[in-house]
């Protein structure tokens, strides 16, 4: 299956090979192409490549043990100062995160969505580690690398979850 929407899986093992700046820019371009409420685009992205920082992330996120093995991770953040349509920023950041994951799959890169917001310890830990301003909330963290594991597509289509016209 070569449809990246249907074949994307969470990849948590990476080869040591570097990921180019061009590839990262492609991922960020895909993330910023996401829909957002009123097109408010409330996001910022922190591209983390410094080894010291990647190695410190499992100290502030309990399910991020793969991050130090990745050549980089991208932190998707929401900026309250950019929000014109209240309460939609997290949905906007979720759309950006998913676009990023699909673009990574299309390039043959491996990535996984690590949840951050709304868990306060993770938000505060990443904010302190990376010097993120108070008005900006870390939303999700996506380690990215060349895959060292292969996963088959997972067909989750369930007719029982589909309601036609009325419930
Ligand atoms: C909001 C959210 C939070 C997640 N948090 C984590 C996480 O902290 N650590 C992790 O290894 N995977 C995390 N995942 C990945 C899920 O475990 C994964 O998407 C799910 O098991 C389905 O597998 P698949 O992505 O391979 O299809 C998260 C996914 C989402 C959408």
Explained architecture:
The chain has 167 residues and is an alpha+beta fold. The chain is 31% helix and 17% strand. The protein has five helices and five strands; from the N terminus they run ααβαβαββαβ. α2 crosses α4. The longest helix is centred in the middle third of the chain and has 19 residues. The mean pLDDT is 98.
Q: What's the SSE blueprint?
A:
Elements: H1 4-7, H2 21-32, E1 43-48, H3 51-56, E2 72-79, H4 89-107, E3 110-111, E4 114-115, H5 120-130, E5 136-145
Antiparallel strand pairs: 1-2, 2-5, 3-5, 4-5
The structure holds flavin mononucleotide.
Flavin mononucleotide binds next to strand 4.
The number of helical runs is 5
β-sheet strand percentage: 15-25%
What letter string, H or E per element, gives the SSE order? HHEHEHEEHE
Helical residue percent?
25-40%
List keywords for this structure.
167 residues; alpha+beta; five-stranded antiparallel beta sheet; binds flavin mononucleotide
In short:
This protein has helices spanning 4-7, 21-32, 51-56, 89-107, 120-130; strands at residues 43-48, 72-79, 110-111, 114-115, 136-145. The chain is α+β, with helices and mostly antiparallel strands. Helix 2 (21-32) packs across helix 4 (89-107).
């Amino acid at each position: 299956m070569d449809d990246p929407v249907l074949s994307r899986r969470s990849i948590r093992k990476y080869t040591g090979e570097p990921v180019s700046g061009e590839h990262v820019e492609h991922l960020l371009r895909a993330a910023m192409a996401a829909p957002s409420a009123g097109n408010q685009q409330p996001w910022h992205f922190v591209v983390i490549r410094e080894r010291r920082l990647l190695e410190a992330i499992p100290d502030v996120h309990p399910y991020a043990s793969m991050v130090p093995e990745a050549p980089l991770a991208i932190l998707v953040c929401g900026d309250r100062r950019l929000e014109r349509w209240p309460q939609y920023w997290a949905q906007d950041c979720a759309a950006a995160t998913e676009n990023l994951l699909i673009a990574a799959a299309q390039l043959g890169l491996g990535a996984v969505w690590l949840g951050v917001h709304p868990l306060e310890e993770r938000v505060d830990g990443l904010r302190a580690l990376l010097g993120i301003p108070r008005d900006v909330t870390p939303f999700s963290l996506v380690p990215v690398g060349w895959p060292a594991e292969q996963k088959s597509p997972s067909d989750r289509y369930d007719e029982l979850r589909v309601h036609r016209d009325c419930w």
